[in-house]
């Protein structure tokens, strides 16, 4: 990890975190090989585990899929240490997803237990969920469900006109809540697919892996026409008045680097990842904070965020592996 990435990491670890932020930050540390850090983060995610199994929950208890973003590091901490504390935490999270989490009639896990808009119901599917739950399900051996979750989200959220994914859909009312081509959401989907593909390949489940690769590569090809000259996407990809966003392009880069390294994506795509990564490097300030991203807490305007920091770290880690091939 170079000096810039070290600063980005330190800044990320200084950010207050909700369940998905703790999860993506810990996963970034895992993928970057920062063992002491991700094990400690897994430990704290379990300390904040709810009685129903949801990991890293603070404040209100509304998130359904977000807490599962912490799951893999809990499993890996058990594999590293042999301490049942971590395995129990991962098992309780899995039990929640499999037996308690609310789902659509065709089995897709809802994103939250509440609605943020009085005109809609809590029965909403968000594209973010493609990253939060499926990779954890896959590493816990629930590969069929992991694949079904991603396929289900594509079924509900995919735009037939462009091939990209809309943000979120309310199954209860049959209407889109935010029918926008949100760049970061599509980035979440790409990163989730890449992680599940790698796990499927490790397990020799090549047919399902190939099916997900096809979904991911088509999605990637659908995003490329929206890329700006600097390698980034606009926050709302088809809105020229929307701000330029580093997070989504870094997430896209993670998918590309992982795909090239895994042998399931052509090296022709490397130029897109390299452009996005180098542009993001220019947006890191002297404290390690990545700017010009979709910003917390509401993710509807330009700012800074934990997932932006984490995406930079993951892109840097996978890039180093690809360039070292």
Q: Counting H and I runs of at least 4 residues, what is the number of helices? A: 13
What is the CATH fold-level name? Answer: Glycosyltransferase
Describe the global form. globular
Instruction: Name the beta content range.
Output: 5-15%
Number of DSSP-assigned strands: 7
User: In CATH's first tier, which class applies?
Assistant: Mainly Alpha
Which strands sit side by side, in order, in the main sheet?
1-2-3
In whole angstroms, the N-to-C terminal distance is 16 Å
Which class do the helix and strand fractions yield?
mainly alpha
What features would you highlight for this structure?
globular; mainly alpha; two-stranded antiparallel ribbon
Care to give the gist of this entry?
This protein is mainly alpha-helical and 325 residues long. The chain has helices spanning 3-12, 19-31, 35-47, 71-81, 84-100, 129-132, 134-139, 143-157, 183-202, 206-223, 246-262, 270-282, 306-323, and strands at residues 124-126, 168-170, 175-178, 233-234, 244-245, 293-294, 302-303.
